[in-house]
Structures are given as C-alpha cells and as structure tokens.
Design goal:
about 290 residues, membrane, transmembrane, transmembrane helix, elongated, Cysteine-rich membrane protein 2, three-stranded antiparallel beta sheet, Growth_fac_rcpt_cys_sf, 3 helices, alpha+beta
C-alpha cells in the first residue's frame, strides 16, 4: 500500500486527507482531497474513515462540504428536488431525505436492508436515512455496532468492536485489544489455531477448533461455520439477532404505535362487545313486548 493508500468502489483504504477517485472495482491510488471530489465521494478525515461529500478536513473532522461549493455555483446535489441560491438543497426527491448536516439527499429507510452496506451505510432510525458507518467500522448495523473493520491493522470482535491488531500471535493465543492473550472459551475475537477460523480454543493438534466462538457451531466437517439458534451469519461471523437486527427497533414507534396484529385484535374485541350488548338489548325489547301483549 502506498503512503496515500489504495482503493476501489468496494474497498476503500485511503489515508487521512485523501479521497478515493475509483469508479469501479479496480484498485487505484488515493488522491489528496480537493474540489475535484464528486457527489458520493468524500475526503478521509481520519485514516480509513471517509466522510461522504466532504471536500476538506481540519483536525480530523470535515471543514468544508460539497454543499458549500454548490452554494457558490448555484448547482444542486444529486436527488435534490428544490434548490435555493445561497442555501443549497432544501427539498429532496421522493424516496430521499435531506441530511441537514451535509445538505445532501440520502435514501430514506426504515431498516438496514434498504441501505447499501458495501458503501458503509446503515439505517439511522432516528433520522430515517441511510447514514454512514463511523469510527473504525467499514460495515455496521448501527452507529455503535461494527460488522467489519476499516484497514488491515484491526480485529473485529463478536461484540461489534474494532480493536487494535496484535503484531504477532502464537498458536493458542488471541488478540485482546492489541495484546496477545491465552485463548479461553469466552473470548471475543478468534483464537489462532492454524488456518481454522472462528475458534475460541484449539484442538489437540492445534490446527482446528476445539470450541467455537460464542454464537457459532461446527458444521459436518468440524469447522466453525454455522450459527447457533438466535444468531445470523454476516461477513463470516455469527451475530446475536437482538444485537444486530435487520430491522432496528425504534423505541418511540413501539411505544406510541400498535402493531397491525394488535390493532386487529382490538377491533375484533370491540365488535364482540358491541355484538353482546346488542344481543342483550334485543332480548330486553322482545321480553318487554311480550309483557305488553299479556
């Protein structure tokens, strides 16, 4: 890798104050950040961490967004429905929501399946937009839970964290935030057992798994390639469903709104009560008429 880093549309490993000019899966050299950055690209304000639609960085944060350039030349960002001179985009096309920080139009969403994980996005439920993975995450299911790490000097744990990689590991050791440690059954990143993957401890021959990482199980070949019940396989690891939901839970929605099934149940209940009351009233009326006839 060069001092500036290399990248493609599927793997971006640029260093700080550089951006990825790639237009396909072919690896190219990262370039210094400039006004040549186009919509959807962005300056890396930290190593391996892109800020979409950012033109310049200062002190590890974006100091100039693409929208500030479009304000000057009165052009609109992609998927913008309305632009105002001096303000930039004020309304997005259908299916997009205005990001008021970068003044760009991001895809609207209600769950992660509507976003593009290969472009380092997840569904931000609070904003209801496809937002960018932050920190060390190259792939994520939320702002704080990583499913993949940026760069090659990090290790992904089953807790969704990207930790420092160890310079060297012996068989039977795992990386504990940059420090080699002896493997045990409850470790959070994989143990070194030859070429075997997803081991918590090694077998006697030291080339295969004795115990799998939490959430994983052995397949018919003895490799830790299956998930136990309640877990889902993503990027070669098994994640607890409640920790990495495909459809993130929105507490505000759950608290204030009822599900379709609950609403149907309430309607049926109300109709049953109304029917019972109507039946009682009819019986009373019939008896009253009979008494009048007598």
């Amino acid at each position: 890798m060069t001092a500036s880093g290399t990248c493609s549309t599927t793997s971006q490993q640029c260093k700080q104050n550089h951006y990825c000019p790639a237009t396909d899966a072919k690896q190219v050299q990262c370039l210094p950040c400039s006004d040549d950055i186009q919509q959807g690209q962005g300056c890396f304000c930290q190593d391996y961490q892109v800020t979409e639609n950012c033109l310049e960085c200062a002190n590890g944060k974006c100091s100039k967004f693409l929208m500030q350039k479009t304000k000057q030349d009165n052009s609109c960002v992609a998927n913008c429905a309305e632009c105002i001179t001096g303000k930039g985009c004020t309304k997005c096309n259908d299916g997009y929501t205005l990001d008021t920080v970068s003044i760009t139009c991001r895809p609207s969403c209600t769950d992660n399946s509507q976003c593009l994980p290969e472009h380092q996005h997840y569904c931000n439920i609070n904003k209801q937009i496809c937002d960018q993975c932050t920190g060390r995450c190259s792939l994520c299911s939320s702002e704080t839970f990583c499913l993949g790490c940026s760069g090659t000097n990090q290790v992904l744990t089953i807790e969704g964290k990207c930790i420092d990689q160890c310079s060297s590991l012996q068989t039977g050791q795992y990386c504990n935030n940059g420090t080699p440690a002896t493997c045990t059954e409850d470790i959070t990143s994989e143990c070194t057992c030859g070429s075997a993957k997803n081991c918590a401890t090694c077998s006697d021959d030291r080339n295969s798994c004795s115990v799998c990482l939490i959430g994983m199980a052995k397949d018919d070949s003895g490799a830790c390639n299956k998930c136990v019940e309640g877990h889902t396989m993503i990027s070669g690891k098994c994640w607890l469903n409640g920790k990495t939901p495909t459809r993130p839970v929105n507490p505000a929605v759950n608290k204030n709104n009822l599900s379709g099934g609950a609403i149907v149940g309430i309607i049926i209940g109300v109709l049953a009560v109304v029917g019972a009351i109507s039946g009682i009233v009819m019986v009373i009326i019939i008896k009253s008429k009979k008494n009048q006839v007598k």
